[in-house]
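Researcher: Hi, I'm a grad student and pretty new to this. My advisor asked me to get structures for two proteins we've been looking at. I'm not sure of the right format, so I'll just paste the first sequence and hope you can take it from there.
Model: That works fine. Here's the first sequence with its structure tokens right after it:
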Amino acid sequence: MVLYDVVVKDAEGVDVSLSEYKGKVLLIVNTATGCGFTPQYQGLQALYEKYNAEGLEILDFPCNQFAGQAPGTEEEIIDFCQSRYGVTFKTFKKIEVNGKGESELYTYLKSQKKGGFLGSRVKWNFTKFLVDRNGNVVDRFGSTVTPEQIEEKIKELL
């Protein structure tokens, strides 16, 4: 299995094959609207605006697994992100990133890049996976690493 074999659902419930992103640099993030890290949406949007034309795509996967910090429907989440942070990158259907119900995407991402003392488990909201233009997961960043702190790594891949 490779990243491009994975199919996810967008916020409207439509299947999206990640093969649509071949040749792009991807930053895949599990997000939440009621989290202390939620202001990172601003930094994510800034990266998207700065580098989208060069091939960066940010894939936003809301996740309510951590303290119920992503309540609401996909429509409410998108509205919040657009009105509060001006988000224009793609938001997908809410998913689980750990456990029995975890998304196939996160099973794959975590198999490619482990995460510290928790092994492969995602510790919290706003964990970021950086994927190169060939679909290789090249890095994983915890919640406390801001989008601004990974800008140089993104530039290297572009």
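Researcher: Oh nice, that was easy. Here's the second one.
Model: And its structure:
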Amino acid sequence: MNAKTQCAFISLILLVVLSGCKPNGPNNQETIPADLVNNPNSASSNVGKGSLPVIQFDEVEHDFGRIIEGETVSYAFSFTNTGKSDLIIGEVSTSCGCTVPSYPKTPIRPGEKGVVKIAFNSNGKRGYQNKSIVVASNTQPNTTVIRVKAQVVNPASEK
């Protein structure tokens, strides 16, 4: 082998070795640390579920019945943390801007109770209304859906 061929051969070997030592994964993306795979809130793991908080609502649906269009009605959904660690509600979102939630912003200790309040404004609504409220918390699963419903009527148009 001449010197030129040896130099090309050594360069090729170095290129292969150095490209194999990169800390990045395919397509030059960062690799995920192995400890994230063991997240107890992942779908495939049962690690630590017994020590997580559990949100237990007294009821998950409330029917306001028949209400007059334009009326605002409210309801308080009571819940208990039946788990073994503090329950933290991160967010409560609704399916419509006509439904406004309020919820505790501080941790709920095991065994303690709390309330998610919902106000439904029926202005501009008619007929059967069914609104979903999603409570996102540090539980497994991390969302719970509660609902309010009502039959909104306009007495003037029913005559």
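Researcher: Is there anything I should tell my advisor about the second?
Model: You could mention this: The helical segments are 3-20, 34-37.
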